[in-house]
Design brief:
alpha+beta, 3-stranded antiparallel sheet, 38% helix, elongated
Length: 101
Amino acid sequence: MLPFAGLEMVLLYLAFRYIDHHAADYDQVVIAGSRVSIEVVEGSAVRRYELNRHWAQLIACAGDRIALRSHGKEVEIGRHLCEEQREAVVRELRRYLREAR
């Protein structure tokens, strides 16, 4: 019985560490002028992308996938959002990208 309790405590510790490490994850999209800047933070990794606003395409699949694509680059965003928030993001991105055309 005691080894199982120890294993459970180790698993709980690892789960809390994972949650703590990823609690501040976010995606930031900034549309300014002819540029779309995307910053994706996952744990301690930070990735930045720059896309041309006039060529950027919004990819919104029926499931839970949102991506911006331009010149062979595709950046997935919104993985941490619920469905309602994802739909709002798609509407806003469509509106802002449409204004560029």
